[in-house]
Design brief:
single chain, globular
Length: about 300
């Protein structure tokens, strides 16, 4: 049951982190080029990786394994570009609904690449889960809002696809290796790719502007949020390794969905800069229905 505890801890941490992402996107970056955070994210991830490696005195695995783990981290970094772009128009709860696609993708990848079987029950669960984002999209009464929602859903779906491929590289490369070493090289790969992406002139210019005008809030929220994300990544990915990846992913995402919805409502009432959920009756009802569908779908899959 350790994998279950780890996945629930990761879900709770990511739920809180999602609202810090909202705050960074809306308040610090004013909705303009939040991807520029990667200029600061990269060095923070690399520093965390080095600190963890020194503290635990990790042993270096084979070069091929190191390459795959760093590739996993690099893919996570690339996928985050779509995530930040989507956050300009999507709230945390809507994003959490799209994350429910990940266990489906795990099973599809395992079926297509590794020849594992998919049952009719799992297919039924897929259909139920896929209804959730459709309901959220059509809860927007105006056609323009629907177009924005569809674009955000598309970006988040791209993010989830890349994140799932990253997790597959991670779990398939970690057999028989000290987990702390596995995580260090994943984190180093993610930080290195963030640094490379951060060289893009548009991102560097925006980073310098925010650093000049909001230095304390920017540095504190980025460093604190990256520590949270690193901790969540550590617990979640270990849960993927010691449990069944698709089931561990389903439990994590379903728990995160419920916690994100509850936190979103609470924060939107008491601290709108962090919550920024749209608390209109029809939108709340559509999100509740979507949450219920995701949970039912995941129960069916399992």
């Amino acid at each position: 049951m350790l994998w279950l505890i780890l996945c629930i801890i990761a879900a709770l941490t990511w739920s809180f982190s999602a609202f810090i992402d909202n705050y960074q996107t809306d308040v610090i970056f004013k909705g303009k080029i939040p991807q520029a955070m990667k200029v600061l994210n990269g060095p923070v991830y690399i520093i965390i990786a080095i600190i963890v490696g020194i503290i635990f005195k990790i042993q270096f695995p084979e070069l091929g394994t190191i390459g795959f783990l760093m590739l996993s981290g690099a893919l996570s970094s690339i996928g985050a570009l779509a995530y930040y772009q989507a956050l300009e128009h999507e709230e945390a709860t809507g994003a959490a609904i799209i994350y429910q696609l990940q266990p489906i993708l795990f099973l599809l990848i395992d079926f297509i690449i590794f020849g594992e079987q998919i049952s009719l029950r799992q297919i039924l669960g897929f259909v139920v889960i896929l209804l959730a984002p459709v309901i959220v999209i059509f809860s927007r009464k105006r056609a323009s809002s629907r177009r924005v929602e569809i674009r955000a859903v598309g970006l988040l779906t791209l993010y989830v696809i890349i994140a799932t491929i990253s997790a597959e590289f991670y779990t398939r490369s970690s057999g028989g290796i000290d987990y702390k070493a596995v995580f260090v090289f994943y984190l180093f790969g993610r930080g290195l790719m963030d640094c490379i992406i951060g060289l893009y002139p548009k991102y560097r210019k925006r980073h310098k502007y925010i650093l000049k005008h909001r230095p304390k809030a920017y540095i504190f929220t980025v460093v604190f949020n990256q520590i949270l994300c690193a901790f969540a990544d550590f617990t979640y990915r270990y849960g993927l390794i010691i449990g069944l990846a698709a089931i561990a992913s389903a439990v994590t995402n379903a728990t995160q969905l419920v916690l994100t919805f509850l936190l979103g409502v609470i924060l939107s009432i008491f601290w709108p800069n962090f919550g920024r959920e749209k608390l209109k009756n029809h939108l709340i009802i559509s999100h509740i229905i979507a949450v219920i569908l995701c949970i039912i779908g995941i129960i069916i899959i399992q």
